[in-house]
Prior knowledge:
The structure holds two protein chains of two kinds.
Chain A: E1 5-7, E2 10-14, E3 19-24, E4 29-37, E5 43-50, E6 55-58, E7 61-66, E8 71-76, E9 85-93, E10 101-102, E11 106-111
Parallel strand pairs in A: 2-11
Antiparallel strand pairs in A: 1-3, 3-8, 4-5, 4-9, 6-7, 7-8, 9-10, 9-11
Chain B: E1 4-7, E2 10-13, E3 19-25, E4 31-37, E5 43-51, E6 54-57, E7 64-66, E8 76-78, E9 87-94, E10 104-105, E11 109-113
Amino acid sequence: SQQGEEDPQALSIQEGENATMNCSYKTSINNLQWYRQNSGRGLVHLILIRSNEREKHSGRLRVTLDTSKKSSSLLITASRAADTASYFCATDATGTASKLTFGTGTRLQVTL
Amino acid sequence: DGGITQSPKYLFRKEGQNVTLSCEQNLNHDAMYWYRQDPGQGLRLIYYSQIVNDFQKGDIAEGYSVSREKKESFPLTVTSAQKNPTAFYLCASRHLAQTQETQYFGPGTRLLVL
Lengths: 112, 114
């Protein structure tokens, strides 16, 4: 089962623009994580936000979490062509003993 | 170099054949995971292990088997009972400390059926 649903499924923007991806989930969580995957490669961890946090920043990344709406957003500012990848949210649900449940992903294309 | 490695990069399976995918980590992580990724989809958990000689089924364990005889190694066998094995398989690991929830991924193995 996949806990997270991501929106949009695909996003195409020009270099320099901001990209926003959204993730919704279904159950109580300990934390929510965002990962990036370049085509045909493994996933790379980007940022983690805990259930008692509302916003977190890391470089050009900004993540928000609204536990009342069971949703999160990832904002990439000043996008670069190298940001082209798929982005996945993953939830660490309460009581699931270290398992992550991944969303369906957003495919981001950044053009020059 | 610390990291997590998977081999082979590509694997071909004939009908009725069992194949084994390798996953090794030298990060001293306690937990290891196997995921399956189908084209354009997210990751689905096959099996995971939090300690040597113990493992649990994930969401799609049917047709797969694992072992965890050493902390560093968590091989996945795709058995002939798995009728649709073509997919990208990812292995991951992490510490079990509460403040170290990040999973680290290997580069993946692409399994194709001949």
